[in-house]
Amino acid sequence: SETILAIQNLSKIYKIKTHPFSLKYAWLKAVNDVSLNIRKGELLGLVGESGCGKTTLAKLLLFLEKPDQGKIQWRDTLLTGLGPKKLKFWRRLVQPIFQDPFASLNPKQTINQILQEPLLIHHLGDSRKRNRAVNQVLTEVGLSPKLKTAYPHQLSGGQRQRIAIARALILKPEFIIADEPTSALDVSVQAQIVNLLLESQAKRQITYLFISHNLSLVANIAERIAVMYMGKLIEIMERNQFLGEHHPYTEVLWSSIPRLERKTKINVQQWGEPPNPLSLPSGCVFHPRCKQKIEICKKEEPSLKEIKPGHWIACHLF
Ligand code: SF4
């Protein structure tokens, strides 16, 4: 289906001290030449270990960080290069949901204030309409409108994440970036929050970028999965390709999912420590940990190639 958001050759490089007391700097390629098309109405999972660049990519798409290179285009509008005023429409269309609802909700505001704020910022509705919108969205996320007078600390973790979702939904977004939205929650609450996101996706036709370290969770809900490693996209696959052949790194991720363990942390330690992000390996970034490497892997970087319709892999074996 139709591409709604096109990401082209996006890069973000940070200048970082090599050691806290050092005067030397090195370059960290947090997002390294990423290209990805997101389709209207899909739930696209973005998976990788912590530090792989997935949160930086989210920040670039939310324009919380500025890319050093590349383009982001929403439908026909090139977003990169727009000034803050012209970007305001985008700040309404795209909404984030973060991992820790406690950190993202102002503790001094009531739930009513928290939910009304986005409407006020975007000058939407009069006070009667805003009140109605708050009641509606609270009901939609499964909470009683009576909670309006409560403060975040009076709610449970699951309720707070429902408030964060309500705050995102109240602006009627077309695109939601959910960055580890269930990782801070109890296992028993995680499924409820995932179901709530899926309901909103179906009901409101929202496009989702669902970011997680948890491949088993993402494989259950996503229509496509993109895998990130050391700032690079190394695989993009469709649902019917989840069981097929994969990039050696993705294979590691699949095989590290214990069958009965639900809340799985990606554990690839047994394949060696990840390389130092400040000095990336030559050739394929995965080669120091790859069991299947061949001669060329150390010298030449593999590019992302479409090996079957919709299935992209960056590996010399394909
Ligand atoms: Fe392994 Fe080589 Fe493929 Fe990289 S390109 S994943 S080192 S086989």
From TrEMBL:
- Extract one GO molecular function annotation from the record: ATP hydrolysis activity
Keywords attached to this entry: ATP-binding, Nucleotide-binding, Transport
Task: Tell me the CDD domains matching this sequence.
Answer: ABC_NikE_OppD_transporters
Q: Which residues form the ABC transporter domain?
A: 5-255
- In the UniProt record, does the keyword Chloroplast occur? no
Which InterPro entries does the protein's record reference?
AAA+_ATPase (IPR003593), ABC_transp_ATP-bind (IPR050319), ABC_transporter-like_ATP-bd (IPR003439), ABC_transporter-like_CS (IPR017871), Oligopep_ABC_C (IPR013563), P-loop_NTPase (IPR027417)
Q: Name one GO biological process term.
A: transmembrane transport
Check the record and name the NCBIfam families matching this protein: oligo_HPY
Protein name, per record: Peptide ABC transporter substrate-binding protein
Source organism of this protein record: Desulfofervidus auxilii
Q: What is the lineage of its organism?
A: Bacteria, Pseudomonadati, Thermodesulfobacteriota, Candidatus Desulfofervidia, Candidatus Desulfofervidales
